[in-house]
């Protein structure tokens, strides 16, 4: 494989990795929205900061690709790989939490009411007769 082909392959892998990392992190944000106990503006601010970090990653990729800077491509590759692994693990955990909560909430085929039976046992000389 020639040196040019290796650089093209590395750039394509970096592009795919960046897109997958962006997608994984955005899916975490969308999934976490369901359980956000934060105020709406706070959650949106945190989401905006995370999206800005993703945009910086994308700019690093574009600049590294446009100027054929190997260092920027390697930096982008490492950060994208970290975000992708973290995003996949985060989505896995979010899926487990969603499944557990959905199982707790699921009422299909089960009565929504509970019957409780109580017995009072008293002494025969007790004043309680009924």
Short characterization:
The protein is mainly alpha-helical.
Question: What would you say this structure looks like, in words?
Answer:
With 130 residues, the protein is an all-alpha fold. The protein is 72% helix and 0% strand. The protein is built from 3 helices and no strands. It has helices at 3-32, 40-66, 70-105. The longest helix has 36 residues, at 70-105.
| Percentage of residues in strands | under 5%
Number of helices, counting only DSSP H or I runs of 4 residues or more: 3
Count of β-strands: 0
Q: What general form does the structure show?
A: rod-shaped
Multimeric organization: single chain
How much is the radius of gyration in Å? 28 Å
Summarize the biggest pleated sheet. none
The average pLDDT score comes to: 80
Structural class: mainly alpha
Assign a percent range to the helix content. over 70%
Low-confidence stretches: none
Measured between the Cα atoms of the first and last residue, the distance is 94 Å
Q: What order do the helices and strands follow?
A: HHH
List keywords for this structure.
130 residues, mainly alpha, rod-shaped
Please specify the SSE layout and strand pairing.
Blueprint lengths: L2 H30 L7 H27 L3 H36 L25
Helix pairs in contact: 1-2, 1-3, 2-3
């Amino acid at each position: 494989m020639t040196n040019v082909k290796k650089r093209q392959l590395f750039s394509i892998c970096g592009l795919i990795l960046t897109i997958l990392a962006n997608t994984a992190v955005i899916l975490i944000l969308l999934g976490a929205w369901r359980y956000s106990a934060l105020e709406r503006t706070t959650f949106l601010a945190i989401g905006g900061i995370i999206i800005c970090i993703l945009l910086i990653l994308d700019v690093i990729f574009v600049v590294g690709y446009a100027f054929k800077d190997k260092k920027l491509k390697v930096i982008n590759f490492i950060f994208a790989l970290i975000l992708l692994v973290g995003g996949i693990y985060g989505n896995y955990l979010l899926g487990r939490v969603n499944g557990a909560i959905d199982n707790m909430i699921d009422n299909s085929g089960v009565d929504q009411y509970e019957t409780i039976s109580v017995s009072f046992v008293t002494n025969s000389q007790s004043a309680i007769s009924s």
